[in-house]
Amino acid sequence: MKHRLLALALGFAAALLLAEAALRLTGSAWNKAEARPGAPGYRILCLGDSFTYNFSLSTDQSYPGQLEHLLNRNREGLAFTVINAGVPGQNTSQILRALEGDLAEARPALVLLLAGGANSWNYYGYRSFLYTGWWARLADRLYTIRVVKLISLLLPGGAGGNPAAAEPGRGRGKMAAGQCLPKAADAAISEHYRQADAAAGNGDRPGAIDRLKEAALLDPENAFICWDLARLYEAAGNSAEAAAWRAKGLQAPADCPLHALYPNLQGEPQPARDFSRWLSHDLEKIIDICREKGIPVILQNYPVRNKTLWAYLPENYAEIARKKSVPLVDNYSVFEKLTAGGRNLFNADTFGHCTAEGYGIMAANAADAIIKTRIFPLAELPVPARAGPRPEKAAGHD
Q1: Is residue 21 part of a domain?
Q2: In whole angstroms, what is the distance from residue 44 CA to residue 326 CA?
Q3: CA distances from 28 to 39, 103, 225, 239 (A)
Q4: Last residue of some domain: 198, 220, 255?
Q5: Same domain, 280 and 155
Q6: For FRET with 84, which of 47, 71, 96, 244 sits at 20 to 30 Å CA-CA?
Q7: Same structural domain for residues 120 and 244?
Q8: Are 248 and 275 found together in one domain?
Q9: Do 198 and 308 sit in the same domain of this protein?
């Protein structure tokens, strides 16, 4: 009897090991197939917050938009699609929660990660991180085993209870360059956003406001539109209207991701002591999940001008990059040198976000890193990436 039980146990263990090996080989083959250039070319997914999304500029002037233009000037004739999955105000925990769905939707050959800036005021997920017990850490470890993941996906509920998993198409919605609405916007709303983008890029805030008001009439519960209107009114100096549109945004459905723009942990002090640990935990887990799927990651730090608030961040990112052995795009140092020389690369109207020229330099820095890592069969670009594309700055911006 003992021998029979032992044989059954060994047979079961062998079957699990074979299933795990088969799933890993299949996943590896799938990811390699996805990395080959086809009709849409290589896909690069840019994860982040408003520095990725960009403020008050056209989608082409965001760093993902300029990066796509820069990469497609290669001499090898390779085609690149750079997907802008930035969401204003999104912190690392929210990126982690949506990651499985984003990767399934985009199926990228590379992920560019620039996140953590919003963690200093958006505490979504911080309490869960702080009070997570050993059982949650064990569950995270078990979830890296393909057989466990397969079983969990077959159970009722689909996502297997993994806190990092998110239903594809839920929360973030359809991804498109520079546009991350909570649901797939219809053609009319997309057109209003396109016209609002163009008006804002030309310094015509009243025109941009009119266009977004038309969009709001078509989708009154869209908190993204309400927030964008509040931002435009604030930039125009009309705080009363800005407050009214923010209040309207609060009436959106409870699962709208923009509710995270309002403090989640009322009354709790800023988690300065554990900020670095929280940031590192989330970013490292994002890297691990991508790496498990065979998707390389390039980590970036922020180009910032307020050293008092941000001085601790460069060290965090450098340490994470060393620990996880991933390339680091050091935007902080590049911008520190350039602004010390008198160049104005930040827009006063957008709470310290970049001008179009600044986003061009970010794109150039990312392109440099992509070429150096040899993830794609690219040589040098026709124009040295360090110089960066120099698009004209949008009218009405500093």
Answers
A1: no
A2: 16
A3: 21, 14, 40, 52
A4: 255
A5: yes
A6: 244
A7: no
A8: no
A9: no
Question: What is the model's pTM?
Answer: 0.61
C-alpha 194/C-alpha 208 separation (Å) is 10
Q: What are phi and psi of 90, to 5 degrees?
A: -75, 130
Q: How many domains does the chain have?
A: 2
Question: Residue 71: what residue type?
Answer: L
From first CA to last CA, the distance across the chain in angstroms is 81
What is d(CA 118, CA 115) in angstroms, rounded to the nearest whole number?
8
Once rounded to an integer, what is the mean pLDDT over residues 321-341? 93
pLDDT score for 346: 84
In a domain, 3, yes or no: no
CATH assignment at residue 200: 1.25.40.10
CA 322 to chain CA centroid, Å, is 21
- CB count in 10 Å sphere of residue 44: 25
Asked whether residue 25 is domain-assigned, the answer is no
Whether the CB-CB separation of 77 and 41 falls below 8 Å is answered with: no
Cα gap 313→69, rounded to integer Å: 29
Containing 64, the helix (H) or strand (E) segment is helix 63-71
- Nearest CA to 335 among 345, 348, 350? 345
Q: What is the mean pLDDT of the chain?
A: 73
Same domain for 162 and 57? yes
Residue 392 lies in a domain: no
Residue count of the chain: 398
* Residue 4: both structure tokens together: 């029979």
**Dist CA 281 CA 323 (whole Å):** 12
In whole angstroms, give the CA distance from residue 162 to residue 158: 10
- Any idea what the CATH number is for the domain that residue 49 is in? 3.40.50.1110
Interval 5-50: pLDDT, tens:
666 666 666 665 665 565 455 444 434 434 444 445 899 999 999 8
Q: Which residues contact 225 (CB under 8 A, 6 or more apart)?
A: 189, 212, 215, 216, 219
Q: Please determine, for residue 167, whether its predicted confidence score (pLDDT) is greater than 70.
A: no
Confidence of residue 59 (pLDDT cuts 50, 70, 90): confident
